[in-house]
Amino acid sequence: MKKTLIFVILILSVITLFAREFESTAIKYLTYLYSKQFAKAVEMSTEIMKSQLPEKKLKQTWETIENAYGKFQGLEKIDYTKNGDYEVYMFTSKFEKMKLAIIISVDKNGKIAGLFFNQVQKYDYKTPDYADKSKFKELDITIGKKWKLNGKLTIPNGKGPFPAIILIHGSGPNDMDESIGPNKIFKDLAYGLSSNGIVVLRYDKRTKVYGNKMKSITLKDEVFEDVIYAIDYLSKLDYVDKIYILGHSLGGYLAPYIAKEDNRISGVILMAAPGSPLEELTINQLEYLKKFASEEEVKTYDILIEKLKKVRNNELSDNEYVLGATVKYYKELRKYNPINFLPDLKIPVLILQGKRDYQVTKKDYDILKNYANNYESHLYKELNHLFISGKGDPNPYEYYNESHVDKKVMEDIVKWINKIN
After folding, report:
1. Residue tagged active-site, from 13, 195, 249, 276
2. 133-276+337-420 placed in CATH 3.50.50.60
3. Has 404 been annotated as catalytic?
């Protein structure tokens, strides 16, 4: 799942980025938003956008932004990118409480095709109760060669040697903390685990730092190479003994393959790891999200579901985009399904899953358990995809309620590491 402060619209095909022809169009659309002329803004939109953000919903979206961040106060700068048939403009905007990036995409016909609100200013991070910053130190590090990435290394007090964990991101251009709104999943994990005697390495994802410079993105580029660089880094530290990898979501999906390929890895932790192909997972998510959707949105979801079924049935060309990814990418992911590698892994595996996770469900959890051998597993009744507690029907909006990775998850990881290390 992709990671913005407010994800106001499900883009129906990749928001590709194009000559600076429609800057005035994007500015006009933004002007209609902050002047609250929502009907005029809707008139500028594509038919898909109109179904996703009709006047009432667009008004609610803008009011939600202003309720959270105060009134719009003006623009600071405009950034522009291009790719394919779309132009994308990022307006760094001042609100009363903080800055937001308002991202507007325009199609080749001059119609508004996408709207996002993304974090510019950082939230003030509150250390979780289970973390004690006096028990570890945090260093700035760099990994990689051609694509150098900034990271953090948290090191427990003492001489060691210590076990070490590398954190592998979920899908999307994640920062080193795997920030989602006010929540920082990887920072919670790093601080909690290093408070309990475990070195943790986390780093910015390559697509976060260099996404606009990468001509094409394969899993090697997006994930594999940088995990190996992280292993190389830890292998040179005399205070580190065994190295483990922890993958969240997409990172968990790919972790068994990485462990199979690199014998320096002593164990694998899978957090909300899919056991199903991406297209199948996304179909299930869209079916679930229908319960929160309008009648028009349901129609749009059904169109998407049919397109994803064509991906599943190999009925589309490799270069066609479906929900932001090429068909070729979907096919590449299938090769690395964890069920292909878990049966042969000799090292210990820890499988963790939130029961309130609608993105990766208990079905995937059960699939992984069926294929793993030397494993321990935990299912958490009240936790969602971020391993944060909640109640009621899980939904994407709860990700923006400030909280922390649950203490029980931290305790289970620490116990598992201490048992096998």
Report:
1. 249
2. no
3. no
CATH of 23-119, one of 3.40.190.10, 3.10.450.590, 3.30.200.20, 3.40.47.10: 3.10.450.590
Burial 387-403 (b: 16+ CB within 10 A, else e): bbbbeeebebebbbeeb
The domain spans of the chain are 23-119, 133-276+337-420, 277-333
CB atoms inside a 10 Å sphere around CB 269: 27
CB 23, CB 89: distance < 8 Å: yes
Q: Which of 177, 188, 204, 357 is catalytic?
A: 357
The answer to whether the predicted template modeling score (pTM) of the entire model surpasses 0.70 is: yes
Determine which one of 13, 105, 226, 385 is catalytic.
385
Distance CA 396, CA 402 (A): 13
Nearest to 281, CA basis, from 385, 370, 184: 385
The pLDDT tens digits of the residues spanning 33-90 come to 989 999 999 999 999 888 888 898 899 889 888 877 888 888 888 877 765 567 888 8
Cα–Cα distance, 379 to 408 (Å, whole number):
11
Please report the sign of the dihedral spanned by the C-alpha atoms of residue 260, residue 247, residue 292, residue 71: negative
pLDDT digits (tens, 9 = 90+) for 168-214: 999 888 899 998 878 999 999 999 999 999 999 999 998 888 876 77
